[in-house]
Write a structure and sequence with these properties.
This protein is an alpha/beta fold. It has two domains: 6-325, Aldolase class I (TIM Barrel, Alpha-Beta Barrel), CATH 3.20.20.70; 329-436, Alpha-Beta Plaits (2-Layer Sandwich). The protein has helices spanning 28-37, 86-99, 115-126, 150-153, 156-169, 186-195, 238-249, 268-276, 286-291, 295-310, 315-318, 352-360, 387-391, 430-436; strands at 6-8, 11-13, 17-19, 41-47, 62-66, 72-77, 104-109, 132-136, 174-177, 199-202, 206-208, 211-213, 218-220, 230-233, 259-262, 281-284, 338-342, 368-369, 372-373, 398-402, 408-409, 414-415. The longest helix has 16 residues, at 295-310. The relative contact order is 0.11. Bound molecules: flavin mononucleotide. Residues 20-23, 45-46, 75, 77, 79, 81, 108, 136, 138-139, 177, 204-205, 233-234, 237, 262-265, 284-287 line the site of flavin mononucleotide (FMN).
Amino acid sequence: MADLRNNFVGIKSPNPFWLASAPPTDKAYNVERAFKAGWGGVVWKTLGEQGPPVVNVNGPRYGAIWGADRRLLGLNNIELITDRDLYTNLREMKQVKMNWPDRALIASIMVPCEEESWKAILPLVEETGADGIELNFGCPHGMSERGMGAAVGQVPEYIEMVVRWCKQYTRMPVITKLTPNITDVRKPARAAKSGGTDAVSLINTINSITSVNLDTFAPEPSIDGRGSHGGYCGPAVKPIALNMVAEIARDPETYGLPISGIGGITTWRDAAEFLVLGAGNVQVCTAAMTYGFKIVQEMITGLSDWMDAKGHRSLDDITGRAVPNVSDWQYLNLNYIAKAKIDQDACIKCGRCHIACEDTSHQAITQFVDGVRHFEVMEDECVGCNLCVNVCPVENCITMEELPPGSLDRRTGKIVDPNYANWTTHPNNPMAVQAAE
Ligand SMILES: Cc1cc2nc3c(=O)[nH]c(=O)nc-3n(C[C@H](O)[C@H](O)[C@H](O)COP(=O)(O)O)c2cc1C
């Protein structure tokens, strides 16, 4: 059996699946049941400093995007950090940690960007026995207008400064949670590293308006006829999150910096993709909010079965395995050639591949052959773009087939370069030529 035990910056948990800081982790009642269901750890809903209570809206706080089958694809929220009293949260965290010593309990914190505020809250959190802290530099709404959350996460100098204070005033490991609402995510990651962070976690939610009511002309969710931008999460954000994780994992300046991967993780496969792109563990929010705590059981068995089938014994065997294969465009092998192929037995003759190819690509798929409706790829026109595979409603009906080295590419009339595997040093590779010059 694959060993799923996780050691993330010294924080141990029985598996790499943590619940992200959000409503699923906002009280002992939830966290206790999450641990019973099997979650390896939780990041408690973000704590603020003791003071006037945080007040949430009293109307709808979520907007959404659905697939045609009404499956939730993207969730938008305008919720703030915890609106429960600081000391109630701290008391519950301490009790939960005592009840579940083998699970990871991380305190997420967001206080004003002043040294005294961080200095004051850190010992209170440390006293709960929490395993670490996560700095919430990501919340894109409500708190950022007050100079916290994403307002800090968008300024690398502030990130570095706050991380430094935290490293100075606590012995707990520091995880810096990054906002995706920034042009180049490597900059805040580098700043966090310069400040001495033990790890980064990403992504927090993405600025968004999910829909507008065309009767009232108000963005949704609407509060008395008005809406504000919210934070977008769920399956729709996974590609953005994966790219940002990979960007940090392969950046020479942050290479080796532990990453907790977050964003749209719904299945074991999503989680495995984050791990192989460099995440040391993963955090989940929307999937738990959509399907409940027990979803972790599919994640645990799925990951474990896949690792067993592939002979991977521990998480160390898979973490970061895909990172060397993430490349800048100019290093892609232009001698590699693939063509689409339609499985005639699986084809339902809907014609979507033909329309897509005919109207927007390379006119490489037939519609009629000898007067009969028939969809077939014309190899001498196909550039291998893959659009037909993506618009086809039947899974695996259209596949991409590689032309073996030495064979004839009927589109260009050229023989596929027998040496194309050696692309990095190939003379036709502009980057290789540059390197040689
Ligand atoms: C309703 C809601 C509240 C959230 N509150 C917090 C929060 O208090 N602190 C925080 O760091 N992230 C918060 N998040 C962001 C999540 O922790 C997570 O980064 C984000 O949802 C992406 O993960 P997902 O796609 O699995 O949901 C919240 C998300 C949602 C949906």
